[in-house]
């Protein structure tokens, strides 16, 4: 009977520790979720700043009239790439 009591006590301790671990993991997962949100927010800000800088650069660049149909096509492709169309 002493063996059973010892086994029951160990089992209760394991259950108690597993509950504590679950609580720790829940907290860790919540912190990681918040961190991921912050990282995504920063990424969006950086992308918006880069887009604004690219627009400003494009607006300040002198407009040159393309000479050939191939140059026209290349200019259109560059514009679409900048807009994310490609």
From TrEMBL:
<protein>
    <submittedName>
        <fullName>Uncharacterized protein</fullName>
    </submittedName>
</protein>
<feature type="compositionally biased region" description="Basic residues">
    <location>
        <begin position="75"/>
        <end position="86"/>
    </location>
</feature>
<feature type="region of interest" description="Disordered">
    <location>
        <begin position="39"/>
        <end position="86"/>
    </location>
</feature>
